[in-house]
Amino acid sequence: MVGQGFTIRSALDVMIGAFCIERDYTLLHSDKDFAVMHDLRGLRVWNF
Questions:
Q1: In degrees rounded to 5, what are phi and psi of residue 27?
Q2: Residue 21's domain spans which residues?
Q3: What stretches of 4-43 adopt beta strand conformation (E)?
Q4: Cβ-based neighbours of 5, under 8 Å, separated by 6 or more
Q5: Which residues pair with 29 in a beta bridge?
Q6: Long-range Cβ contacts of 6-11 (<8 Å, 24+ apart)
Q7: Using an 8 Å Cβ cutoff, are 31 and 12 in contact?
Q8: For the chain, what is the radius of gyration of the CA atoms?
Q9: pLDDT tens digits for the chain (48 residues)?
Q10: What is the C-alpha to C-alpha distance for residues 15 and 27, in angstroms, rounded to an integer?
């Protein structure tokens, strides 16, 4: 994602996002890093 101009600020966010993507889970969040993963990697999210 860095090559596409986006940087995820937390390694933990990357691990949580990857876990949810691999298992096709929807993630409830209020963190803009997950919005980037939604746009670029198809992470299913529900924002609050």
A1: -105, 125
A2: 2-47
A3: 26-29
A4: none
A5: 47
A6: 6/36, 6/40, 8/33, 8/36, 8/37, 9/33
A7: no
A8: 10
A9: 556 677 788 999 999 999 999 999 999 999 888 988 999 999 999 988
A10: 12
CA–CA distances in Å: residue 13 to residues 2, 21, 39: 14, 12, 15
End-to-end CA gap in the chain: 24
The number of beta carbons lying within 10 Å of the beta carbon of residue 17 is 23
Structure tokens at 34: 């997950």
The pLDDT score that the predictor gives to residue 38 is 93
Q: Residue 22: enclosing H or E segment and its boundaries?
A: helix 11-23
Nearest-angstrom CA–CA distance, 44 and 21: 7
Domain count, the chain: 1
